[in-house]
Amino acid sequence: MPTALVIGGSRFIGRHAVTEFRDAGYDVAVFNRGRHENPFAEDDAVSHVEGDRKDRTDLRTAQLSVDPDVVVDMVAYQPADVEVAVDVFADVDAYVYVSSGSAYGAETIPKREDETALEPCSAEQATDDSYASYGARKAEGDRVVSSAAEDGVNAMSLRPPVVYGPHDYTERMDYWLGRVLEHDRVVVPGDGTNLWHRAYVEDVASALRVVAEEGAPGEAYNAGDRRLVTLGEMVEVIADAAGTDVEVVTAGARELAAGDLALGDFPLYREYPHVLDTGKLHALGWESTPVEEAMARTVEEHRESDRDGREEGPDREAEERVLGVLDTF
């Protein structure tokens, strides 16, 4: 039976990755610092190795104790993290680095793995930990993977865009879920046609396994919903999944100013479309969950959670002022 080591694995994408590999017949080990509740504490099929992924000795200890066939690296946020990992795990059948759609440095539609330029990364950015350098650091991690593959390491990258679904601690989607479940009118910034590619978390988990099993060393693979929906359409998909009716009320910059709001104050708003070509991953046999089904699962788990997403976007009082202005037109 093959063994998978998930670096990270207790919170969002990593949690689903553990489930994906376990259900596919792998022995699974989770390597992390143990700072978050372990959802697999009672699962005999999942072991836990405690350590700091930035400590080479800890990584080496995990490699020796688990002897993994596959390594999935969820929490490599700086290029140096990837450099150490591809060295420590140089002999595994597959090392899969979780990169990001943010690694792309050109605004093209769609963004393709082998065509679209990546973000450059300066020495200063490489050691930074701010959101501003996130894409650059992920891009440099991709370049480390490519270089390692040239040296014979079976290393690959997965590039998802914004990920949503059960157990999403970022609460970006929870903001919109809460608006739909609590109100019959939902303010959507712009004209509602904003398009930011998203990926359902269980699909990202299955993509990690597919890339580990079928991917080619040195290659990167985009992952994302096969059917894209605009921000306005997403609100309607949520309403359908929740079994409720809402009115999508679009508001431009002038109308939002009535509530001292700006377009960028709303989560998942992006002025220019962000679209990834997922054909390369699809060619490996990967499939995504229909958006309606993915959102139904997301709504169900949201209702059972204590997340409300209110801190991720405007407060309702400000939105009510915007709605008041729009109602006078």
TrEMBL record:
Residues annotated as domain NAD-dependent epimerase/dehydratase: 4-224
One of the Pfam families matching this protein, by short name: Epimerase
InterPro entries tied to this protein: Epimerase_deHydtase, NAD(P)-bd_dom_sf
Stretches for region Disordered: 296-329
UniProt-listed Gene3D superfamilies: NAD(P)-binding Rossmann-like Domain
Basic and acidic residues biased stretches: 296-322
Chain segments annotated as coiled-coil in the UniProt record: none
SUPFAM superfamilies referenced in this protein's UniProt entry, alphabetically: NAD(P)-binding Rossmann-fold domains (SSF51735)
Species for this entry: Halobium salinum
Family the UniProt entry places it in: Belongs to the NAD(P)-dependent epimerase/dehydratase family.
Protein name, UniProt field: NAD-dependent epimerase/dehydratase family protein
Domain of life: Archaea
